[in-house]
Amino acid sequence: MAEEKLELRNLDQGLLGGKKQEEKTAGKYERIYQPCIAELVGTTFFVFIGCVSVVENLEAAGRLQPALVHGLAVAVLVACMAEISGSHFNPPFTIAIYLCGGMRLAMVVPYLISQVIGGLLGAAMSKLITSPEKYTNVSGAAFVLLKSDEQLTGALCGEIFMTCLVTMVVLLGAVNGKTKSPMVPFLVGCTVIINILAGGDVSGTCLNPARAFGPAVMAGYWRYHWVYWVGPIGGGVLAAALVRLLLGDEKIRIVMK
Hints:
Elements: H1 2-9, H2 28-56, H3 58-61, H4 64-81, H5 91-99, H6 108-129, H7 132-137, H8 152-175, H9 184-203, H10 209-219, H11 227-247
Helix pairs in contact: 2-4, 2-6, 2-10, 4-9, 5-6, 5-8, 5-11, 6-10, 8-9, 8-11
Protein backbone atom coordinates (compact mmCIF):
# COMPACT_ATOMS: atom_id res chain seq x y z
CA MET A 1 0.00 0.00 0.00
CA ALA A 2 2.80 2.42 0.83
CA GLU A 3 4.45 1.70 -2.52
CA GLU A 4 1.16 2.34 -4.36
CA LYS A 5 0.74 5.70 -2.63
CA LEU A 6 4.28 6.67 -3.57
CA GLU A 7 3.65 5.73 -7.19
CA LEU A 8 0.45 7.77 -7.24
CA ARG A 9 2.32 10.81 -5.99
CA ASN A 10 4.81 10.35 -8.79
CA LEU A 11 2.21 10.19 -11.57
CA ASP A 12 2.55 12.69 -14.38
CA GLN A 13 0.62 15.92 -13.85
CA GLY A 14 0.45 16.66 -17.56
CA LEU A 15 -1.47 15.67 -20.67
CA LEU A 16 1.26 13.81 -22.54
CA GLY A 17 2.00 11.28 -19.87
CA GLY A 18 5.73 11.06 -20.47
CA LYS A 19 7.12 13.36 -17.82
CA LYS A 20 7.63 12.24 -14.22
CA GLN A 21 7.70 14.36 -11.12
CA GLU A 22 10.37 17.06 -11.25
CA GLU A 23 13.80 15.78 -10.32
CA LYS A 24 15.26 16.87 -7.04
CA THR A 25 17.93 18.82 -8.91
CA ALA A 26 15.33 21.02 -10.64
CA GLY A 27 15.30 24.58 -9.38
CA LYS A 28 12.40 26.25 -7.63
CA TYR A 29 11.60 28.24 -10.78
CA GLU A 30 11.10 25.09 -12.88
CA ARG A 31 9.17 23.29 -10.15
CA ILE A 32 6.81 26.07 -9.05
CA TYR A 33 6.88 29.30 -11.02
CA GLN A 34 7.42 28.16 -14.59
CA PRO A 35 4.44 25.73 -14.59
CA CYS A 36 2.15 28.51 -13.35
CA ILE A 37 3.48 30.90 -15.99
CA ALA A 38 2.86 28.26 -18.65
CA GLU A 39 -0.71 27.80 -17.42
CA LEU A 40 -1.27 31.55 -17.52
CA VAL A 41 0.23 31.99 -21.00
CA GLY A 42 -1.49 28.92 -22.44
CA THR A 43 -4.91 29.87 -21.06
CA THR A 44 -4.41 33.45 -22.25
CA PHE A 45 -3.84 32.46 -25.85
CA PHE A 46 -6.55 29.79 -25.82
CA VAL A 47 -9.16 32.30 -24.62
CA PHE A 48 -7.80 35.00 -26.92
CA ILE A 49 -8.03 32.83 -30.04
CA GLY A 50 -11.43 31.47 -29.02
CA CYS A 51 -12.93 34.90 -28.40
CA VAL A 52 -11.53 36.43 -31.59
CA SER A 53 -12.91 33.54 -33.64
CA VAL A 54 -16.40 34.20 -32.28
CA VAL A 55 -16.30 38.01 -32.41
CA GLU A 56 -14.94 38.38 -35.92
CA ASN A 57 -16.74 35.50 -37.60
CA LEU A 58 -20.13 35.34 -35.93
CA GLU A 59 -22.29 35.78 -39.04
CA ALA A 60 -20.59 33.08 -41.11
CA ALA A 61 -19.29 30.91 -38.31
CA GLY A 62 -22.09 28.50 -37.54
CA ARG A 63 -20.74 25.82 -35.24
CA LEU A 64 -17.96 24.41 -37.42
CA GLN A 65 -15.64 27.40 -37.33
CA PRO A 66 -15.55 27.93 -33.52
CA ALA A 67 -15.38 24.15 -33.02
CA LEU A 68 -12.27 23.87 -35.19
CA VAL A 69 -10.62 26.96 -33.71
CA HIS A 70 -11.10 25.91 -30.08
CA GLY A 71 -10.19 22.28 -30.71
CA LEU A 72 -7.07 23.02 -32.76
CA ALA A 73 -5.94 25.68 -30.28
CA VAL A 74 -6.20 23.13 -27.47
CA ALA A 75 -4.24 20.53 -29.43
CA VAL A 76 -1.43 22.93 -30.35
CA LEU A 77 -1.04 24.48 -26.90
CA VAL A 78 -1.18 21.12 -25.12
CA ALA A 79 1.50 19.68 -27.39
CA CYS A 80 3.77 22.70 -26.92
CA MET A 81 3.56 23.18 -23.16
CA ALA A 82 2.83 19.75 -21.72
CA GLU A 83 6.40 19.23 -20.58
CA ILE A 84 6.35 22.54 -18.68
CA SER A 85 3.06 22.53 -16.80
CA GLY A 86 1.04 19.60 -18.06
CA SER A 87 -1.06 21.93 -20.22
CA HIS A 88 -4.28 21.97 -18.21
CA PHE A 89 -5.55 25.47 -19.16
CA ASN A 90 -8.88 24.56 -17.58
CA PRO A 91 -9.89 24.46 -13.87
CA PRO A 92 -11.94 21.22 -14.15
CA PHE A 93 -8.90 19.46 -15.66
CA THR A 94 -6.70 20.57 -12.79
CA ILE A 95 -9.23 19.50 -10.16
CA ALA A 96 -9.81 16.12 -11.80
CA ILE A 97 -6.10 15.44 -12.31
CA TYR A 98 -5.47 16.18 -8.64
CA LEU A 99 -8.35 13.93 -7.56
CA CYS A 100 -6.81 11.10 -9.59
CA GLY A 101 -3.39 11.58 -8.00
CA GLY A 102 -1.76 13.29 -10.95
CA MET A 103 -0.46 16.42 -9.23
CA ARG A 104 0.45 17.82 -5.82
CA LEU A 105 -2.17 19.65 -3.75
CA ALA A 106 0.22 22.57 -3.27
CA MET A 107 0.06 23.35 -7.01
CA VAL A 108 -3.72 23.18 -7.42
CA VAL A 109 -4.61 26.70 -6.24
CA PRO A 110 -1.68 28.38 -8.09
CA TYR A 111 -2.79 26.61 -11.27
CA LEU A 112 -6.42 27.71 -10.82
CA ILE A 113 -5.40 31.32 -10.18
CA SER A 114 -3.12 31.29 -13.23
CA GLN A 115 -5.91 29.95 -15.43
CA VAL A 116 -8.45 32.54 -14.27
CA ILE A 117 -5.97 35.38 -14.80
CA GLY A 118 -5.15 33.93 -18.22
CA GLY A 119 -8.83 33.97 -19.10
CA LEU A 120 -9.02 37.66 -18.19
CA LEU A 121 -5.91 38.55 -20.19
CA GLY A 122 -7.06 36.58 -23.24
CA ALA A 123 -10.46 38.28 -23.22
CA ALA A 124 -8.83 41.70 -22.81
CA MET A 125 -6.52 41.01 -25.77
CA SER A 126 -9.49 40.01 -27.94
CA LYS A 127 -11.30 43.21 -27.01
CA LEU A 128 -8.23 45.24 -27.91
CA ILE A 129 -7.92 43.97 -31.48
CA THR A 130 -11.51 43.31 -32.61
CA SER A 131 -14.10 45.66 -34.05
CA PRO A 132 -15.94 47.50 -31.24
CA GLU A 133 -19.25 47.07 -33.06
CA LYS A 134 -18.79 43.33 -33.52
CA TYR A 135 -17.49 42.98 -29.98
CA THR A 136 -20.61 44.63 -28.57
CA ASN A 137 -22.94 42.60 -30.78
CA VAL A 138 -21.68 39.32 -29.34
CA SER A 139 -21.00 40.57 -25.79
CA GLY A 140 -17.28 39.92 -26.21
CA ALA A 141 -17.83 36.21 -26.95
CA ALA A 142 -19.35 35.69 -23.50
CA PHE A 143 -21.87 32.85 -23.31
CA VAL A 144 -25.20 34.52 -24.05
CA LEU A 145 -27.18 31.56 -25.35
CA LEU A 146 -29.24 31.09 -22.18
CA LYS A 147 -32.20 33.46 -22.15
CA SER A 148 -34.74 31.78 -19.88
CA ASP A 149 -35.11 29.30 -17.03
CA GLU A 150 -36.65 26.80 -19.46
CA GLN A 151 -33.23 26.30 -21.06
CA LEU A 152 -31.42 25.97 -17.75
CA THR A 153 -31.70 22.23 -17.05
CA GLY A 154 -30.58 21.21 -20.53
CA ALA A 155 -27.70 23.66 -20.55
CA LEU A 156 -26.45 22.69 -17.09
CA CYS A 157 -26.64 18.97 -17.87
CA GLY A 158 -24.98 19.60 -21.22
CA GLU A 159 -22.03 21.33 -19.58
CA ILE A 160 -21.71 18.52 -17.01
CA PHE A 161 -21.85 15.67 -19.53
CA MET A 162 -19.65 17.26 -22.20
CA THR A 163 -17.02 18.37 -19.70
CA CYS A 164 -17.10 14.88 -18.20
CA LEU A 165 -16.32 13.42 -21.63
CA VAL A 166 -13.34 15.66 -22.41
CA THR A 167 -12.00 15.35 -18.85
CA MET A 168 -12.27 11.57 -19.03
CA VAL A 169 -10.19 11.66 -22.22
CA VAL A 170 -7.57 13.73 -20.37
CA LEU A 171 -7.47 11.39 -17.37
CA LEU A 172 -7.36 8.16 -19.36
CA GLY A 173 -4.87 9.50 -21.86
CA ALA A 174 -2.51 11.25 -19.45
CA VAL A 175 -2.90 10.06 -15.86
CA ASN A 176 -4.09 6.46 -15.98
CA GLY A 177 -1.02 4.29 -16.48
CA LYS A 178 -2.81 1.54 -18.40
CA THR A 179 -4.18 3.87 -21.09
CA LYS A 180 -1.60 6.68 -21.38
CA SER A 181 -1.10 7.84 -24.94
CA PRO A 182 1.20 10.33 -26.73
CA MET A 183 -1.85 11.16 -28.86
CA VAL A 184 -3.47 13.07 -25.98
CA PRO A 185 -3.20 16.56 -27.55
CA PHE A 186 -4.94 15.29 -30.69
CA LEU A 187 -7.53 13.33 -28.70
CA VAL A 188 -8.43 16.24 -26.43
CA GLY A 189 -8.60 18.66 -29.36
CA CYS A 190 -10.89 16.30 -31.28
CA THR A 191 -13.12 15.85 -28.24
CA VAL A 192 -13.50 19.62 -27.91
CA ILE A 193 -14.47 19.83 -31.59
CA ILE A 194 -16.98 16.99 -31.23
CA ASN A 195 -18.54 18.55 -28.14
CA ILE A 196 -18.99 21.96 -29.75
CA LEU A 197 -20.48 20.47 -32.92
CA ALA A 198 -22.87 18.32 -30.89
CA GLY A 199 -23.89 20.69 -28.10
CA GLY A 200 -23.14 24.21 -29.25
CA ASP A 201 -26.84 25.09 -29.47
CA VAL A 202 -27.63 23.59 -26.07
CA SER A 203 -25.32 25.58 -23.77
CA GLY A 204 -22.72 27.20 -26.00
CA THR A 205 -20.32 24.41 -24.99
CA CYS A 206 -18.07 26.31 -22.60
CA LEU A 207 -16.46 23.37 -20.74
CA ASN A 208 -14.01 25.81 -19.17
CA PRO A 209 -14.82 28.41 -16.47
CA ALA A 210 -11.74 30.45 -17.41
CA ARG A 211 -13.07 30.74 -20.98
CA ALA A 212 -16.40 31.99 -19.59
CA PHE A 213 -15.05 34.29 -16.89
CA GLY A 214 -12.73 36.49 -18.97
CA PRO A 215 -15.31 37.58 -21.57
CA ALA A 216 -17.97 38.01 -18.85
CA VAL A 217 -15.71 40.51 -17.04
CA MET A 218 -14.73 42.39 -20.21
CA ALA A 219 -18.30 42.63 -21.51
CA GLY A 220 -20.05 42.90 -18.15
CA TYR A 221 -22.38 40.02 -19.03
CA TRP A 222 -23.28 37.79 -16.07
CA ARG A 223 -26.66 36.27 -16.88
CA TYR A 224 -26.60 32.56 -15.95
CA HIS A 225 -22.84 32.81 -15.63
CA TRP A 226 -22.85 30.35 -12.72
CA VAL A 227 -23.85 27.56 -15.12
CA TYR A 228 -20.41 27.80 -16.72
CA TRP A 229 -18.71 27.17 -13.38
CA VAL A 230 -21.02 24.61 -11.79
CA GLY A 231 -21.47 22.58 -14.98
CA PRO A 232 -17.82 22.16 -16.03
CA ILE A 233 -16.52 21.62 -12.48
CA GLY A 234 -19.29 19.09 -11.85
CA GLY A 235 -18.36 17.32 -15.08
CA GLY A 236 -14.69 17.24 -14.10
CA VAL A 237 -15.48 15.73 -10.70
CA LEU A 238 -17.79 13.17 -12.33
CA ALA A 239 -15.00 12.13 -14.72
CA ALA A 240 -12.57 11.77 -11.81
CA ALA A 241 -15.10 9.59 -9.99
CA LEU A 242 -15.51 7.33 -13.03
CA VAL A 243 -11.76 6.85 -13.31
CA ARG A 244 -11.20 6.39 -9.57
CA LEU A 245 -14.09 3.93 -9.14
CA LEU A 246 -14.45 2.09 -12.44
CA LEU A 247 -12.07 2.86 -15.30
CA GLY A 248 -8.68 3.40 -13.68
CA ASP A 249 -5.94 0.83 -13.37
CA GLU A 250 -5.04 -0.75 -10.02
CA LYS A 251 -2.80 2.16 -9.04
CA ILE A 252 -5.60 4.71 -9.41
CA ARG A 253 -8.77 2.72 -8.75
CA ILE A 254 -9.82 2.82 -5.09
CA VAL A 255 -12.31 -0.07 -5.22
CA MET A 256 -12.32 -3.61 -6.59
CA LYS A 257 -8.55 -3.98 -6.40
